[in-house]
Amino acid sequence: MNLPNISKNRNTLSDHAYHVIRGAIVTLQLEPGQLVFESELGSTLGVSRTPIREAFRRLMTEELIEILPQRGARIAYMSKKKIEEARFVRLSLEVSAFKEAARKWNANDAAFEKAYQQIKGILEEHRKIIDEQNFDRFLELDESFHSAVLELTGNSTLISIINQMRGHLNRMRYLELLETKHMNQLVSEHEAIFEAITVNDEEKTERLLREHITSLEYCTPDLVKKYSHYFQSVE
């Protein structure tokens, strides 16, 4: 496991511990079923046990970590049921949010111009790293794209709920990336969705986003079979 040492100059140590550990869970550096210990992670990240403990609490609320009495903590196994539930929630909430972004979009507004530059930058970097086959960074940029559009709604509650659900879905999406290497397809879909938003086309935005979120469901059975050791044996 290769986790970065946490900088003490950015935000809080617990926030950074949370994001680093969560990222390692999503990209399967910390594998489902693996035991993890506060002291070891604290040493790896260069922080005391307190920030790690606080990060664990947040990850427990997302059901990405389970506390085992007298044994420490365990990375939660992947769950087909949980992934399906997360996909349903994400689809329901993000469609409404993206349609609202399309409805609100105003190219003459300074805030939207700033958002345009931010999102275009994300998409451009997305394109650049495809040849590198950097799946970790690609998934980060994928999240950044969706988060940047969600921010346009100004609905912090909605954003929080979607972010909590993403961890379960993103572990499956990471496996999909490893197996299908469909990065060109995903970036093209992002570009088309964003174009629909910027021309205030709510109907097209909804159709494209639904296709984007559900298009890879066909991979799930094969991935569950191939990576059965990552999944709960009984659901």
From TrEMBL:
Protein name: Bacterial regulatory s, gntR family protein
Gene Ontology MF terms: DNA binding; DNA-binding transcription factor activity
Pfam families registered for this protein in UniProt: FCD (PF07729), GntR (PF00392)
PROSITE patterns: HTH_GNTR (PS50949), IQ (PS50096)
UniProt keyword annotations, A-Z: DNA-binding, Transcription, Transcription regulation
SMART domains (alphabetical): FCD, HTH_GNTR
InterPro entries tied to this protein: GntR_C (IPR011711), TF_FadR/GntR_C (IPR008920), Tscrpt_reg_HTH_GntR (IPR000524), WH-like_DNA-bd_sf (IPR036388), WH_DNA-bd_sf (IPR036390)
PANTHER family, per the entry: GLUCONATE OPERON TRANSCRIPTIONAL REPRESSOR, TRANSCRIPTIONAL REGULATOR, GNTR FAMILY
Residue intervals of the HTH gntR-type domain: 11-78
Keyword Transcription recorded: yes
